[in-house]
Design a protein that fits this description.
Number of domains: 2
Bound molecules: adenosine monophosphate
Order of helices and strands: HHEHEHEHEHEHHEHEEHEHEHEHEHEHEH
CATH architecture of the largest domain: 3-Layer(aba) Sandwich
Largest sheet: 7 strands, parallel
CATH class of the largest domain: Alpha Beta
Structural class: alpha/beta
Number of strands: 14
Helix content: 40-55%
């Protein structure tokens, strides 16, 4: 089935075509008809599957059609997301898809003064996308009137629970009409998420994508056994062999992120970092540079990069193994997005083997192993050390040449 065959507003079809989206992805194929019918949806969808458009397309359509016959200015749809970055990203999808319709959306940022947000809200927007904390604040101060909400979306609900948003979400429910359509999206499911979901949805349509293998089929993922002290050589070596690739490197902590950046710098590789110690403006700048390809290597922690949609990330490297299979699924899901193919490689040291065993168990099937012989392993390290030496050598030689020239000129 093609988007052309769907009964949705022509304006949306125009935007889809502009973005080169011809056919729905699995999650879109499964969700769009139910959402159009007004049913509640509980979707367990991996990241990168096209889930934002899966809810944005039918929501824009429904609001657009309604506005053809009835002008109304109140907020009709509320989308909650765990982080500012994700909220902005969702807003961008809404804006792109609604460009040729009557529908408007607005993303509520923390860090922006409330007055300008109030003005924008009073101006009249149809869809608000925000994190639960800031939303609750605005609703409590009666700046944001949520009494006309017809559709509520919770995106990355598992991540919202991880970040401790549960109380904000529950409190927010006091301001939102019970008689509404609720769309609940989560990449993973456990008892806490099920409890929250069933508190919010009503007799939902349950959509689950390949539950046995939570990693998208578009992603080829494997693990290599590399000792802690050698990881930087293997990373630098990978980058040297794939100089034009957009690469996302995951590490366990903020401190590790900066350390890996410094280690790469010593190996002659430029990279940027994104983690919780960075200011919002710095994080946004890093995302911009990576998105536009000004920087090709981004080193990130789990929290800072979850849900982030950056086109064309060709490879994800788990420099440190993640703590849980949920984190693993989220991390590797940064590549192979939409209809693209991607690859993910995890570096596992001796100390991390128990973590790997856990991952194998929880992912439903073991991660593929990259078997390196002792010779190949040693060769990679030697090659990298050699490359570094030559780099230094050539730098020194260049410096010497420059000095000679200067001396000649002085004479
Ligand atoms: P999401 O899971 O919403 O973060 O989307 C992941 C990626 O899939 C984004 O880069 C979208 O632009 C892309 N995408 C969404 N829908 C489609 C589609 N129907 N065809 C191709 N790519 C898509």
């Amino acid at each position: 089935m093609k988007f052309d065959d769907y009964i949705i507003a022509e304006g949306i079809k125009k935007s889809l075509a502009k973005q080169g989206f011809k056919k729905p992805t699995d999650i879109q194929f499964k969700s769009i008809p139910s959402i159009l019918k007004g049913e509640d949806v509980l979707a367990i969808a991996q990241t990168g599957t096209g889930k934002t458009a899966a809810f944005a397309i039918p929501i824009i359509h429904k609001i657009h059609i309604k506005k053809l016959i009835k002008q109304s200015n109140g907020v009709k749809c509320l989308v909650m997301a765990p982080t500012h970055e994700l909220a902005q990203q969702i807003d961008k999808v809404f804006r792109d898809l609604s460009k040729h319709t009557k529908v408007s959306s607005y993303c509520i940022h923390g860090g922006v003064d409330r007055d300008s947000q109030q003005l924008k809200i009073e101006d009249g927007v149809d869809i608000i996308i925000a994190t639960p904390g800031r939303l609750f604040d605005l609703a409590k101060r009666q700046i944001l009137d949520l009494r006309n909400i017809e559709i509520l979306v919770l995106d990355e609900a598992d991540h919202m629970l991880d970040l401790g948003f549960i109380e904000d979400i529950k409190e927010l429910m006091r301001f939102i009409p019970k008689d509404r359509q609720t769309l609940f999206f989560s990449a993973t499911i456990n008892d806490a998420i099920k409890r929250l979901a069933y508190d919010m949805v009503d007799n939902p349509i349950r959509i689950e994508l390949s539950p046995k293998d939570p990693v998208s089929k578009n992603i080829e993922h494997a693990v290599a056994f590399i000792e802690m002290d050698d990881k930087r050589f293997f990373l630098a070596n990978y980058i040297a062999n794939h100089p034009a690739q957009k690469l996302l490197v995951f590490v366990r902590t903020k401190v590790r992120a900066e350390r890996v950046k410094n280690a790469l710098e010593r190996e002659g590789v430029e990279s940027i970092t994104i983690h919780g110690d960075k200011l919002q403006a710095e994080r946004e700048e890093a995302m911009r540079a990576f998105r536009q390809g000004d920087s090709l290597v981004l080193i990130a922690t789990d929290i800072s990069a979850r849900g982030i949609d950056i086109p064309d990330v060709e490879c994800v490297i788990n420099y440190d193994l993640p703590e849980s299979s949920e984190h693993y699924v989220h991390r590797v899901g940064r590549t192979g997005r939409g209809m693209n193919k991607g690859q993910a490689i995890s570096f596992c040291s001796q100390e991390e083997r128990p973590l790997l065993e856990e991952l194998d168990k929880n992912l439903g099937k073991p991660i593929m192993r990259i078997e390196l012989t002792k010779g190949e392993y040693a060769l990679t390290i030697e090659a990298q050390k050699e490359a570094l030496k030559t780099d230094w050598q050539s730098l020194l030689e260049e410096e010497e040449k420059r000095d000679k020239k200067k001396r000649k000129k002085k004479k």
